[in-house]
Amino acid sequence: MTRRAASRAGGFTLLEMMIVIAIIGIILGASVALLGLFFKGESVRQASAIVAQGVAEAKQWAAKERVYFFLVFSKEGDEGIIEIHRDANKDGIYQGDQDVKTPDADPAVEGKWADLPKFVIFERAPKWISFAPSGYMGFSPGFNEMQASSFDAVHAGSNPNPVGDVVVKVTNRNFRVCMDLDKATGKVRRSHFLGEN
Predict the structure, then answer these.
(1) Which of 17, 64, 100, 158 has the fewest other C-beta atoms within 10 Å?
(2) Chain segment 23-57, per-residue pLDDT in tens
(3) 4 occurs within a structural domain
(4) Residue 48 covered by a domain
(5) β-strands 120-124, 128-131 pairing
(6) Which domain holds residue 148?
(7) CA dist 153 to 157, 161, 171, 191, Å?
(8) What is the DSSP string of 68-91?
């Protein structure tokens, strides 16, 4: 065996190493892009779970204290926020936060607020949802409720539009979760995830 053949059998050439490193780099780059898409989609799913939890809690508070409670939707910067407020004057109408200094303001329940994940906002939502002690849900004036049959018909299509009573989305992306709320039961009836096309 020649000296050249003996040294070749034990290692890789620089060119072979560079090719392997390039292939690994391409695979890692594609994986990071796919993981980014997955986590962007996961953030709206997490946001819909936060909204569903807020709906359940506000309904529970109303039944427990036998007074109206409100789930208030707002936005601060690039984040959506939900807060639970108690009906201070027992009129069943949200009068605004105490920060506004309105005489009939409805105070936020301490510790009952949540930020949606970063870069997730409300694309469509009422200003607030009221919860009667009976469990019935009402929407802020001027908000048009999405009917369950319309929700189902739109989302059953091959290219559904983002419709629902509450729609959360990732800013500057097409990841959305559309939620249909049931006024009679005071619950989230169903939700539908829409990813990027």
Answers:
(1) 158
(2) 887 777 766 555 554 455 788 889 999 999 999 99
(3) no
(4) yes
(5) unpaired
(6) 14-194
(7) 7, 10, 26, 13
(8) -EEEEEEEETTEEEEEEEE-SSSS
